Amino acid sequence: MPETVRLLTVGQIRVYRTEHGTIFRTSQGEEGRLSVELLSEAMWVSGPIGMAGLRLDPMTTKLTQRQVAALPR
């Protein structure tokens, strides 16, 4: 059963891995604007907002705190 997607609080970041291995993170700014960043060659770069929908895909997994800690900042 897929995890229920909860709204992000300001400053909260969630990190995911797609079935194809793409790692992306979502965050919400003070004004409620959702943003997406992709991990590309050990660097976070701005990604298309449409990728936020991939967090709902049953083949996308939310990374654990330990997995996130191992990623570049």
Blueprint (SSEs and pairs):
Layout: E1 13-17, E2 23-28, E3 34-40, E4 43-46, E5 61-62, H1 65-69
Antiparallel strand pairs: 1-2, 1-5, 2-3, 3-4
List keywords for this structure.
mainly beta; 73 residues; 7% helix; disordered N terminus; globular; single chain; five-stranded antiparallel beta sheet
Report on this model:
With 73 residues, the chain is mainly beta. It has one domain. Helix content is 7%, strand content 33%. The chain has 1 helix and 5 strands; from the N terminus they run βββββα. The protein has a 5-stranded antiparallel beta sheet, with no helix packed on it. A hairpin with a 5-residue loop joins strand 1 and strand 2. It starts with 12 loop residues before the first strand and ends with a helix. The N terminus is likely disordered.
What is the domain total for the residues?
Answer: 1
pLDDT < 50 runs, ≥5 residues = 1-6
Instruction: Estimate the strand proportion.
Output: 25-35%
Topology order in helix (H) and strand (E) letters:
EEEEEH
Q: Quickly give the structural class.
A: mainly beta
The total beta strand count reads: 5
Largest sheet: 5 strands, antiparallel
Mean pLDDT: 87
Helix segment tally = 1
Rg result: 12 Å
Distance between the termini: 31 Å
In order across it, which strands form the biggest sheet?
A: 4-3-2-1-5
Helix coverage percent:
under 10%
Using the alpha-carbon principal axes, give the shape.
globular
